[in-house]
Specification:
Layout: H1 4-22, E1 29-30, E2 35-38, E3 43-49, E4 54-60, E5 69-75, E6 80-88, E7 95-101, H2 115-119, E8 139-140, H3 146-152, E9 154-155, E10 169-176, E11 183-187, H4 195-202, E12 212-223, E13 229-236, H5 244-256, E14 265-269, H6 274-279, H7 281-285, E15 291-293, H8 294-298, E16 303-307, E17 309-318, E18 328-332, E19 344-347, H9 356-364, E20 368-371, H10 378-383, E21 387-392, E22 397-401, H11 404-414, E23 432-433, H12 442-445, H13 447-455, E24 468-471, H14 473-482, H15 485-494, H16 496-500, H17 502-518, H18 523-534, E25 542-548, E26 565-567, H19 575-583, H20 588-596, E27 606-612, E28 619-624, E29 637-644, E30 659-664, E31 673-677, H21 691-711, E32 722-728, E33 734-741, H22 745-748
Parallel strand pairs: 13-14, 14-15, 17-18, 18-19, 19-20
Antiparallel strand pairs: 1-7, 2-3, 3-6, 4-5, 4-7, 8-11, 9-10, 10-11, 10-12, 12-13, 16-20, 17-21, 21-22, 23-24, 24-27, 25-26, 25-27, 28-29, 28-32, 29-30, 30-31, 32-33
Helix pairs in contact: 17-19
């Protein structure tokens, strides 16, 4: 029940808000909205024409009254500007934009400091917050970045009286003069663990009806109100109950002083206040206060939409030894180590976001989701072996019956129109040390090889990038011509039965690979490879890694398509492993992938990257010089996925859950990071990436990102990011073994690799935002 006393104070606050806002009418004008849209996070975006002599305040009507509530502020630019409501969008008629002259600014929050002074001094000041200034170490008046929340928050194993906070990262808030002119404070929990200590230190009212205080918690594995993974929730000290009006007002006040929020902050309904929520549920349902229940958070994650997309195909349950087809939407109980082109992926086992399976899904634009016990759903069982439409959203999936016509039309519009020719340059005819290979030799040695070679020149610590050699495409083509394999395979791949019968195609390609592995090499090639092998220490195992001309390319990631081999000392001449890598160009999944994208098979070529084999590594992982999963901002965090020993993040073993860390990018800051989750292969108190390695990784990844951004001519491309694979080797050295542009970069890239041919070709085709000529 709502007390009459609270209703009176709430109405008084609304009246004060009305007085403060409209006391500045003489200094401001309401202006016309040019455009009203709702973005993919569910937020309202209001565009207006601005000029450099004014600033602009967006106000809303979120409460059941006619009083405007300022929610966003922005300086004019002389162009169109967009003001964003950080919470769930209201209707367009519930927003107003007012224009204020910089020469005569208002004081919208009534704190004695004008709006413009506060606006240009964010985050030291907060233009929509009347709170008094406090010491930097005590807390903030505004949280304008995810990293600021990270600085203010902390994780405790045990929180007395508030078990729902155990092992969760949280900060504290305090709102004084709640029913008058609200003053919002975000406490630094590292220095002030209690609200009382904070309020006493600064003479701020800290208790009573006129105060709202509680916690802001980050839940990284919870689906937010906007449908994305990772969300913030708030509640009150010790899990106390509150009226709907207090919750609604707290929600608005916190959100407008957390401008980085993207409609992903909700009220946290703990078990002890659920009955209060249920009594007011109709009020919540008719408001924009989203809620998350403790019972939902405590439960095991049952669904994760890893790649948001849609498609058509045949729904099939698959075992790991079966080979799916291009039109199959596959259901796996366990995650396959590699996967050919399919139409959709469902696994009953949690995937890692950077697994080869998910990277392939991103590249191919196909839906991919983890759905626990999916085959226990009778509606899913009914659709097995039927044509279906499959759509993955971040918080739900859709599976429904489709017609064969739907499926055929979908595929007709998905494939390229013309034959594609990957970059191929046969002018490099010698095996080269990585120090002799430059970035622009990708068309002779493969991007995997040239990118690793490029990192040798970035000034990283000597042991960070392995020493090695590159075998150019010229060797593969000379070998194939020496054995007349090109002319042998040409009529086979043009045969209609071979094209249309996958089982037959698999058997023919298997025979062809066997021929390649058993074929002879020209004498000069054997001699050159002998010299290569002799360059490694006696008794060494040499890793021979595929470096083809159709992987790590614009629009064609190729992760996991080809095979790498290790040449052990007792296996004789290294040509054995080199031919095995050559043969992998003709495995079924790689062939079908090229066929789907209409990549010319005879122009496809295999280079080989050779370095000492890693064995008995302490850990291995994948990192991205951005946060592609939790979307905390391109300028703030690196994303790291690490697992114990040789259990690969890219091809995880059954039930393998890697360590996830968000690492602060800024080298000028003290080391800051957020542990999203620990590896399930070690004790929760152990970090595989200890602070020593995190410091190294932050320095290395920043350099690698900046250097490749120049090499890829992507200085103006904000979506550019680098993905690396790394190991902590048996000597406890952090080694980086691969780097390539993060797959989403290609969707927005303006300048990409160029392949020289006599005629003009587009790669890939269709090309949405970029082409290679």
């Amino acid at each position: 029940m709502i007390s009459p006393k609270f209703l009176l104070t709430f109405k008084c606050w609304l009246l004060l808000t009305f007085i403060f806002f409209f006391s500045h009418l003489s200094a401001q004008n309401e202006i016309t909205v040019n455009n009203f849209t709702i973005n993919n996070k569910g937020q309202a975006e209001i565009s207006v024409t601005s000029d450099e002599n004014h600033y602009y305040i967006l106000s809303a009507l979120p409460f059941d009254n006619e009083i405007l509530f300022p929610i966003s502020i922005q300086e004019g630019t002389g162009n169109l500007i967009t003001l964003t409501d950080v919470l769930q969008a209201l209707s367009s008629n519930q927003y107003k934009v007012h224009e204020y002259p910089i020469s005569n600014p208002a004081d919208i929050d009534n704190d004695g400091i004008d709006d413009y002074t506060e606006l240009i001094n964010i985050p030291e000041m907060a233009p929509l917050n009347a709170a008094i200034s406090i010491d930097e170490d005590a807390g903030n008046l505004i949280i304008n970045e995810f990293s600021t929340f990270n600085e203010l928050s902390r994780t405790f194993e045990q929180v007395q009286w508030s078990e729902f906070l155990n092992n969760r990262r949280y900060a504290k808030f305090l709102i004084s003069d709640f029913n008058g002119v609200p003053q919002v404070y975000f406490l630094n929990i590292n220095n002030y663990e209690s609200h009382a200590d904070f309020s006493n230190a600064f003479g701020i009212e800290g208790a009573g009806q006129n105060v709202s205080k509680g916690n802001i918690i980050f839940l990284p594995s919870q689906i937010s109100n906007n449908g994305s993974l990772g969300t913030f929730v708030f509640n009150y000290s010790n899990g106390a109950a509150a009226s709907f009006e207090k919750i609604q007002k707290t929600h608005e006040l916190l959100a407008r002083n957390m401008p980085f929020i993207e409609n992903n902050i909700s009220y946290y309904v703990t078990e002890n206040v659920q009955s209060n929520y249920e009594a007011d549920s109709s009020l919540f349902n008719n408001s924009r206060v989203s809620v998350i229940f403790e019972s939902e958070v405590s439960s095991e994650l049952d669904y994760w939409g890893l790649n948001i997309s849609e498609g058509y195909g045949i729904l099939r349950q698959m075992s790991l030894n079966e080979i799916p087809g291009i039109k199959d939407i596959v259901i796996y109980e366990n995650i396959p180590n590699s996967l050919p082109r399919v139409s959709g992926i469902i696994t009953s086992e949690i995937q890692t976001p950077l697994s080869h399976v998910n990277l392939r899904a991103i590249q191919d634009g196909i839906p991919n989701a983890f759905i626990r016990n999916v085959l226990n759903n009778p509606d899913v069982q009914k659709l097995l072996n039927q044509y279906v439409y499959f759509r993955v959203d971040q918080d739900k999936f859709i599976l429904e019956e489709a017609s064969v016509q739907d499926v055929n039309e979908w595929f007709a519009n998905s494939r390229p129109v013309e034959t594609q020719f990957p970059p191929l340059n046969l002018s490099e005819r010698k095996i080269k040390n990585l120090t002799e290979i430059s970035f622009d030799m990708y068309d002779s040695f493969g991007a995997k090889c040239s990118n690793l070679a490029s990192m040798k020149k970035f000034g990283l610590a000597e042991e960070t990038i392995p020493d090695g050699y590159g075998v150019p495409f010229y060797f593969y083509h000379s070998f194939m011509e020496h054995n007349n394999f090109i002319e042998e395979i040409r009529p086979i791949i043009e045969d209609e039965y071979f094209k249309n019968n996958r089982t037959y195609r698999d058997s023919i390609l298997k025979v062809f690979r066997t021929k390649i592995k058993n074929a002879s090499m020209p004498d000069w090639m054997m001699d050159d490879l002998s010299v290569l092998q002799a360059n490694f220490p006696d008794g060494s195992s040499i890793r021979c890694r595929s470096s083809s001309n159709n992987e790590d390319l614009p629009g064609f990631n190729g992760a996991g398509l080809y095979t790498s081999k290790t040449q052990h000392p007792d296996e004789g001449h290294i040509s054995k492993s080199i031919k095995q890598v050559f043969a992998s160009l003709w495995n079924l999944r790689a062939y079908d992938e090229r066929e789907f994208y209409k990549i010319d098979h005879l122009s496809s070529s295999m280079g080989v990257l050779c370095h000492l084999n890693f064995k008995n590594e302490v850990a291995n992982g994948v990192a991205v010089s951005d946060d592609p999963l939790y979307e905390t901002g391109n300028a703030e965090f690196f994303y790291l996925n690490t697992q114990l020993g040789e259990d690969l993040v890219t091809n995880p073993g059954a039930q393998s859950i890697p360590e996830e860390i968000l690492l602060d990018k800024n080298p000028e800051n003290e080391l800051q990071y957020i542990v999203i989750r620990n590896s399930n292969l070690v004790n929760d108190s152990i970090l595989l990436m200890s602070e020593k390695y995190l410091l190294e990784m932050r320095q290395n990844l920043r350099i690698i990102h900046d250097e490749f951004k120049q090499l890829y001519d992507a200085e103006e491309n904000e979506s550019f990011a680098i993905e690396i694979e790394y190991k902590i080797d048996k000597n406890n050295i952090l080694v980086i073994k691969q780097a390539r542009p993060w797959i989403e970069f290609w969707e927005n890239a303006k300048n990409n690799l160029v392949t020289e041919r006599a005629e003009i070709l587009v790669y890939p085709n269709p090309a949405s935002t970029q082409i290679v000529i």
